[in-house]
Design goal:
97 residues, 0% strand
Length: 97
């Protein structure tokens, strides 16, 4: 009974998230080249995003259709890109009033 109630998958996902965050943090403290830094950040970011989607957001567990799943992912990607490029547009490139 207790084994069914304990969220071992979530605990392992949390630990994996902490390990991936620590791996990404090595970019600041280690003396790697710029290319190595970008590779480390890119790999840890992709794994972290996948981990968040599948473990914590339960993507794919109860999806009625694949179309709905891909539509939700596309919308999330669109919102993320608009946020990132909107911020760059305003603050970095100086397009503010």
């Amino acid at each position: 009974m207790m084994k069914q109630l304990f969220p071992i998958r979530h605990v392992m996902g949390y630990i994996a998230s902490l390990v991936l965050s620590a791996a990404a943090l090595t970019v600041i403290y280690a003396d790697f080249s710029d290319t190595a830094n970008m590779v480390i950040l890119l790999i840890t970011a992709i794994i972290q995003a996948s981990l968040q989607l599948f473990v914590f957001m339960h993507i794919g567990e109860n999806a009625d259709t694949k179309k709905e799943l891909y539509l939700n992912l596309a919308y999330a990607l669109f919102v993320g890109l608009v946020t990132i490029f909107g911020t760059l547009f305003i603050f970095v490139w100086g397009w503010y009033a």
